[in-house]
Specification:
788 residues; alpha/beta; seven-stranded mixed sheet; six-stranded mixed sheet; 28 helices; globular
């Protein structure tokens, strides 16, 4: 077998010219940028080569706008696509590409083109070269956008988000995104003035200051909490804002015309997305954000979204996880057009791997995992990299027949070992696993890798927009390489920041450890932020989705949010949908000597919704109030009950504390009081400042237990100082027995939610003939403090 001579990747050892700063200054960059760039040899050489290939005379200084574009080419165009750099530079110098959006579209096109022959006309089309949007065309688009947003514009007047309107205009059609920016801004402002007329005194009042807005945020206003930001590249955007950036499927010029035409015929030009979880654990709040984007984008654009299980790793997958994922997706209100599995395509994937080998783009490799890792570290190719195609095909067939054990041989993609991108260093396409699959059983003993499967199934399912989190950004190049190598349709790929919350963990590895080592009761332990845990704790799907919408979409790395934002989003939804009831968590007995007959009092199910009707609560000679609502010593700022003091009862008159019953140690056991009816209290002018919730227990009522939850971890980042297990909060769960609830709660069923007046929101977690367990979802107000 012949071995290919290989040269290890090394930095360019050419000496930079002494006047490198002067040369780079020709790009009209800021002096500080030039100085810092000169310290980066790789970028400096790229820019010097760009200057050399630009055709400009030595010493020629480019205009600042052109220089910025050329600088971006040097910084952003890497890998195999560098071979097309001179063509891109030519378009910039000629003025065909004159804006950053045009350049970004061109860069994306070239990265997808890779080593294929460059179709210059398709490149020009992809970035809007030659497209001129007329004033009449622009005004037609503006009219449509303003008509749709008329209500919002009339309400906000001159505080309307003009940037949002301009983004909507640019997404009006595929041509409109190339409209001249100044003309767009002028026309939008003119239309705004036509609709609203001259500014009024109210319009001229200054908007709330940043300080005032900051105070509102500190009070827990999750309203658009992180939505003040507007650029999807650096700051958070709404779903609609992010969606406006995505190209129309017909504009995916990274594909050859015949491939794109076939794709559009199969989809009808619709947007097609997918949510592709691995069935090796339960979904969490980060997945809720991913679903919100994938399903939401498809919905906004009248498209479709698949739920696809990425089930290529049989030993870590189970039907339990599959069932839980389907339940979570449906609970959040998402409706996939179809539920698919990567395993549905195992036959096709196997044949495509054979084709990849046949094209000389993959090979059978006998290196161990350690040897492959070392080869990647030193950029040394496998000694089997150039074995004959027929030999690799024969080995692959024998792998399928079970003639090799696990780890003896794999099929690797023949990518680019010299690439600066580690995801191009001949990743594994297929490996032997003597493990039955949850769906295909014992049919296969070879399984495709994630890197081989993911992009191919995206293509097979005609996904138009492959949306994933930023940690997959480095896989972008290998994703496109494989589809190019097989001559398959290439979706648009767009990465966004993943979601993390303070004082918890979301990684499957850490969640699995918490569950398997018994630190929590299971994947649905209400202290976790899995979807099943949120459901069990009482959060609503509407509240979870609202949270995902409010934090927005961004590409600004991983964002860490406070759980208070999630609670605030759900609190508003719970307030609207929960029946009111009364419950006493820490009961203090109050005996009313002048109440001789029990009676039932009708109270509203919801104070703002009379159509919901009423429920009856028992009032008897013995009632219970919260122990914290009584003090032995009164004070002016205390509105609870004290000796010799009046206090109101919710929906039911006034009581006066006559006596306190204590034990031998001075602990309060019960109170003796006098009841005053609402009519008597009014006639006597008794108007107490405080009104307490209370409960009279029914005879034979069962025992009620309530579980209250605090953050599972003590610090904001549990893993910051070592093993996250050491940061577990020992007081993260409080269980209270002997809770007393009114009759309407006793009649409730598992899953019913209530607002316990003055206490918080609760859900019935378990119920048997004589017992009930409640979980507190959240308090009535945001009491979270900034964590350290």
């Amino acid at each position: 077998m012949s071995e290919k001579k290989f040269i290890s990747v090394k930095k360019d050892r050419r000496e930079l010219p002494q006047d490198v700063v002067g040369q780079l200054s020709r790009l009209s960059l800021e002096p500080k940028v030039v100085k810092n760039t000169a310290k980066n040899e790789t970028l400096s050489w790229a820019l010097l080569d760009i200057l050399s290939s630009s055709g400009a005379e030595p010493g020629f200084v480019f205009e600042k706008a052109v220089g910025s574009l050329l600088y971006a080419v040097g910084a952003k165009l890497t890998g195999e696509a560098v071979m097309h750099r001179s063509a891109l530079v030519s378009l910039i110098v000629k003025g065909d590409i004159a804006s950053m959006p045009q350049l970004e579209a061109a860069l994306e096109f070239l990265i997808r083109t890779g080593t294929d022959e460059l179709d210059t006309e398709s490149l020009k089309t992809s970035c809007g070269v030659g497209v001129t949007v007329s004033q009449s065309e622009l005004r037609e688009a503006i009219e449509s956008v303003f008509t749709s947003a008329k209500k919002e514009i009339l309400e906000s007047r001159y505080r309307t988000n003009v940037g949002k309107l301009m983004a909507a205009v640019k997404s009006f059609s595929s041509r409109m995104k190339w409209v001249d920016g100044k003309m767009l801004k002028d026309e939008v402002n003119q239309k705004l003035e036509e609709m609203l007329g001259p500014k009024t005194d109210e319009d001229n009042k200054p908007a709330a200051s940043k300080k005032q807005k900051g105070k509102a945020k500190e009070k827990g206003a999750s309203k658009k909490a992180d939505k003040g930001e507007q650029s999807a590249e650096g700051e958070a955007q709404s779903l609609e804002g992010a969606a406006s950036r995505f190209s129309d499927p017909a504009d995916n010029f990274a594909n050859k015309p015949d491939i794109l035409k076939k794709h559009l015929e199969q989809t009808g030009g619709k947007i097609v997305t997918r949510f592709p979880p691995e069935p090796n654990g339960y979904l969490h709040i980060g997945h809720a954000k991913a679903m919100n984007l994938s399903f939401g984008f498809a919905s906004v654009k009248n498209g479709i979204c698949y739920l696809r299980f990425d089930d290529t790793n049989p030993e870590k997958e189970s039907q339990e996880y599959i069932d839980s994922i389907i339940e979570d997706v449906m609970w959040l209100g998402h409706k996939p057009i179809q539920i698919t599995h990567s395993s549905d395509y195992f036959d096709t994937l196997y044949e495509l791997c054979k084709e990849l080998i046949g094209r000389g783009k993959a090979y059978a490799c006998h290196q161990t995992g350690e040897e492959m890792a070392e080869g990647r570290r030193t950029h040394t190719p496998s000694p089997w990299r150039d074995r004959p195609i027929g030999e690799s095909l024969g080995i692959f067939e024998n792998m399928r027949r079970g003639m090799y054990g696990e780890g003896e041989v794999v099929i690797r993609m023949k990518q680019d070992m010299m690439s600066p991108n580690p995801n191009m260093w001949d990743h594994v396409a297929y490996r032997v696993k003597m493990q039955p699959h949850p769906r295909s059983g014992n049919k296969w003993c070879v399984y495709p890798s994630y890197d081989f499967t993911h992009c191919i199934v995206d293509s097979l399912e005609n996904i138009t927009h492959s949306l994933c989190t930023l940690e997959f950004e480095s896989r972008h190049e290998s994703y496109m390489w494989l589809l190019d190598a097989l001559g398959m349709y290439k979706p648009v790929v767009w990465e966004y920041s993943r979601l993390n919350l303070e004082a918890t963990v979301l990684s499957k590895r850490k969640l699995t450890r918490l569950v398997e080592e018994g630190y929590v009761s299971g994947w649905d332990d209400p202290r976790l932020f899995t979807i099943s845990a949120l459901r069990r704790r009482g959060f609503t799907p509407e509240g979870v989705n609202k949270f995902c919408e409010e934090i927005g979409v961004t590409r600004r790395g991983t964002l860490v949010h406070s759980p208070a934002l999630l609670e605030n989003a759900c609190r508003g939804d719970l307030d609207d949908r929960c029946h009111r009831a009364m419950a006493v968590l820490h009961p203090l007995k109050v005996e009313l000597a002048n109440v001789t007959e029990p009676r039932w009092i009708s109270v509203p199910n919801h104070p703002k919704k009379p159509e919901w009707g009423v429920h009856d609560v028992l009032f008897d000679s013995t009632i219970y109030i919260e122990r914290s609502d009584f003090r032995l010593e009164d004070s002016k700022d205390y509105f609870g009950l004290a000796p010799g003091k009046d206090v109101g009862l919710r929906y039911n008159g006034v009581i006066h504390c006559d006596d306190v019953v204590k034990d031998g140690h001075g602990n309060v056991l019960s109170l003796k009081a006098t009841y005053v009816s609402p009519e008597e209290a009014s006639a006597q002018g008794r108007k107490p400042k405080g009104h307490l919730h209370w409960v009279s227990p029914r005879s034979g009522a069962g025992g009620v237990t309530a579980h209250l939850f605090e953050p599972l971890f003590i610090s904001s980042n549990p893993s910051e100082n070592g093993d996250f297990i050491h940061d577990i909060n020992p007081n993260s769960k409080e269980t209270i027995t002997g809770v007393i609830v009114d009759a309407s709660v006793e009649k409730g069923e598992v899953g019913d939610r209530f607002q316990f007046e003055r206490v918080g929101y609760f859900i019935i977690d378990k119920k048997e003939s004589n017992t009930m367990e409640l979980n507190r979802t959240t308090g009535l107000k945001d009491k979270h403090k900034p964590r350290q």
